[in-house]
Each structure stands twice: as structure tokens, then as C-alpha cells.
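Dear colleague,

Thank you for sharing your sequence with our group. We've completed the structure prediction you requested, and as agreed, I am returning the results in plain text so they can be pasted directly into your records. Please verify that the sequence below matches your submission; if there's any discrepancy, let me know and we will rerun it promptly.
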Amino acid sequence: MNIAICDDEEIFRTYLRDLLVKDSFVRGTDIRVEEYDSGEALLEVYEKGDFCAEVIFLDIRMPGLDGLDTARALRGRGEKCLIVFLTSLSEYARKGYEVRAFRYLLKEEADRELGKVMEDCRRELGEGDWFSFAQGHKMCRIPKVNILYFESRKRLVLLHTASESYPFYRKLDELEEELQGSGFLRCHKSYLVHERYVRSWKGSRLWLEDGTELPISRGCEREVNRRLMLREG
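Please find the predicted C-alpha cells below.
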């Protein structure tokens, strides 16, 4: 899960980051956290397409562009990320409806309430059933069940579904680790395939239900045979 913390207080950003890392460790989930000290800095990153968050912890009271104006700008761009407002002032809560705020987190209760907020975020995102990736400056989500295979072309990865292919930048080794336990199988240094769509395999080749033919490398052959034969059994 990609998470952004936007708060002008460095001490609180560090504190919240530590809480998020601790929560992810306890739950056995993977997160990437980026910090921004102003609404302007956060929006600049979105303009450049350098980072897209699924969850943004956004301080309401900041110098310059405050949290509400930053949220309006994000929604104006069409961003559908979950916004969790950080505040010590409960009277701001009603203003968040216009920017579709997902939750509020009182700073003085962060250590006690963060776990519940993150649990709600994961449930809302359907984290276990979707694969998320950044494409340009937009965050995309594809149901894992719709993914046929991933293809690596150096740093570029192509996600293939039955109807479309989506390019994005990641390492296939990282994807293999991230998708462990989700039914994806490494058949070659350049391919990660969804087991459920493998129709048949023989020697150094395998075929998907749509007729796609993929290579099986010698180093992956034993694991491919083991996994696919277990499925057949």
C-alpha cells in the first residue's frame, strides 16, 4: 500500500510514520510511506507523476495551502485516494464531506486509533483482492483474478489481462514477493503467470487458456512442475 503523510510538523510526521511501520509489521503487510511538509509539495509530486498514494494522511491546519484546499485540488484532478484528515480540532470534521474525507484521526489519539483507521482503509481498498500500481500520475487498481501474467522488459513491466495490457515501472522480483500466496507462479526470469489460467505445460513451454504461449526456464522448471501438478491433484 502506498501511503503519503502531509504535515508541516516534522516531529509528528516521523511519529506517524513509525506508527504506520509498526502497524504494518504486526499485520504482516507491505507499505511504502512518503512524507511531505506542505500541500504544495504533495501536489507537485502528483503533477510530476513521481508518486501516487492510495491513502493520504493530510493535516488540516498548514501554512500556505491548508489540508482542505489540498484535498480539493486532489479531487479536482480526479484522484480517488482515501483521505484521512489529521486534526486536533473536531469542529473541522463537517467540512471534510465536500472532499469525500474517508476518516479523521485526532493527533493526540494517533497511537490508539491508527490501527482501526488502517484496518478500515484496507477493507475499503479490498487490499487482498486487488493489485495496485502507478501508471503515470494515476494510481490504477486491477482485480488480481483478472490478471493473466506479468511480463518484464528490463525496468518496464507489462500487466496482461484478457482485454488489455498495462505498462508500469517495477522489478519482477519485487512483484513475485508482493504477490506471494496469491496464485502467481514464476516460470521464467521475465514472466510471472497466474496459475489458474495455465491450460497445459510441457518441457520448456506453457500455454494459457487464451492460447498465449510462455517459456519455462530451466531454473524454474522444477517449481513449475511441482505447483501445477499439485493443482491438478
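Summary note from our side: The chain has a mean pLDDT of 87.

Kind regards,
the structure core
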